[in-house]
Amino acid sequence: xxxxxxxxxxxxxxxxxIRLLNTxxxxxxxxxxxxxxxxxxxxxxxxxxxxxxxxxxxxxxxIKSIPDEFEExxxxxxxxxxxKDVQKAAISNxxxxxxxxxxxxxxxxxxxxxxxxxxxxxxxxxxxxxIASDPYKLxxxxxxxxxxxxxxxxxxxxxxxxFLYD
Length: 166
Known about the structure:
Layout: H1 10-24, E1 28-29, H2 30-41, H3 58-65, H4 76-96, E2 100-102, E3 109-112, H5 119-127, H6 134-142, H7 154-158
Antiparallel strand pairs: 1-3, 2-3
Helix pairs in contact: 1-2, 1-4
């Protein structure tokens, strides 16, 4: 049986990355972009970020209200690792289409070239109901603001990336 999932579709990943960078409006490092993309695909996995957000905060209540995904992720680290290939292909595709640039202040931070985004994609983003959802706002407003490196960084708190040698 053939089953479609947006996690393995690099065209869908291109859309997700454009949507994230457009919404956030500032350059993001490759690792943070990949983490934010993972959580936009599987928002229920934000429940497993250790020590974030603070208990009894509005963000914590929002995370508790997120329903679990239909599919159970038995090994999130493996899913994240497999998703990297799709994300790297999507990033390469966006560079080839002149939709991404590397930020001059940081060689590994990507920013969207908004004027090169086709009108059809801009319209699709405007119609996208997920952008108005609380989980997406949490990802684009709060999660992307977290520090990435170190013991208290997003890499360690999420458990999805190695942080010991940062």
